[in-house]
Amino acid sequence: MKLLVTGGAGYVGSVCAAHLVDAGHDVTVLDDLSTGHADAVPDGAEFVKGDVGEAADDLLADGVDGVLHFAARSLVGESVQRPELYWQGNVVASLRLLEAIRRHGTPRLVFSSTAATYGEPEQVPIREDAPARPTNPYGASKLAIDNMITSYAVAHGLAGVSLRYFNVAGAHGRFGERHVVETHLIPIVLQVASGDRESMQIYGDDWPTPDGTCVRDYIHVDDLAEAHLLALAHAEPGRHAVYNLGSGTGFSVREVVEACRAVTGHPIPTVVAPRRSGDPAVLVASSEAAAAALGWRPTRTDLATIVGDAWRFTQLRHGVGPAGPAQRPSATRTPRATVDLARCPLVSLSTDCGGSPGHGVGHRWSRRLIRGACDAGSDVAPARGAGRRVFSAAVSGAAPARRSGRRAARSGGCPPRRGRAASR
Ligand SMILES: NC(=O)c1ccc[n+]([C@@H]2O[C@H](COP(=O)([O-])OP(=O)(O)OC[C@H]3O[C@@H](n4cnc5c(N)ncnc54)[C@H](O)[C@@H]3O)[C@@H](O)[C@H]2O)c1
To answer: Which residues are catalytic?
Structure first.
């Protein structure tokens, strides 16, 4: 399938994009790099730098079979202090994406929802029919998007699936968690083991749990990615399905720290701090619905595997440890194409930059990719009608040949910009 992956330069999105490419899909990543990293876009995927709310319309105009929508702001604390960022960046941007989906008849959407839509659970494990009462603007923004998708499915026949993740963890080779502001437990604990922090804080050891620390459900990011592929395959027109995704097992903070000590061999000092308000004692998913409807079964549910994969990724980032085929340093693995849409406004539909006469709107953004490379100073040698393929060869360093003037224009090369530049 031809797929648009928003947020595919982030943690979960990059791993899912890698799985999608491996499964043979034609993947374009759209990401504004606000929290993501260009070198996290997997080989074989095209990369467009831009905002979901602004760029999706043009990308979907080419005819896309489905959207996987990971792009979001997702810091709970920030959402409490600056809710406007979440209503704008999550809700408004997603509404624009849904409008683009409707306008261009994109049939499928798989959306990254969250356990935060439920708030404080009345019952554990949490099922999809539990009351959705988010306790912060982040969770509320995700619930609002879920509700929008339901209405678009009913009114416009969209095949929608929302996947409500619990605590995503682990890594997939060189793809892993690299948040600048890290709030997730396992990477924080591993930062202590790798010397980036002196100790880690445990927020409360007097919770009503077996060892007094909070219990959470950790889902391996590879299991999560597999659920996305299944969701894509099972999405039904006119229906919005919602599935919780967790391993179904809860681990306490102390158990996670112990697992990290065992994997890393580091003592990992801990400091007990007061409870944080709004932290539920136990959050564990019931993933029975996903198992029944999608045939999804998580297989990497033990902490040793989850922490082990995350630790290998951490070591790789620090230049330590073996570099297997999927773990080569990122500098040697460039995405097929990198374009900053902010620097690359809509160019004239003439043939001054890639594509061939007669390809028209269908190749509009192939030309845009090439224009972006030209603006960025890349050597680009596109041939007639092969803009995307040849551009990709050029940015990955294959024998570039600069052309200019009329010859370039005839062959689809990049003469100086001319023609109409439409604002977007
Ligand atoms: N990581 C978890 O444990 C977890 C749990 C539940 C839900 N989720 C959801 O999963 C998704 C991915 O989470 P993650 O941990 O990979 O986060 P992340 O920050 O690593 O990835 C988000 C990506 O989206 C991009 N982005 C953000 N706003 C954008 C916009 N308006 N336009 C284009 N790109 C934009 C960022 O640059 C980043 O690359 C998010 O929607 C998040 O809410 C994550």
So the answer is: 138
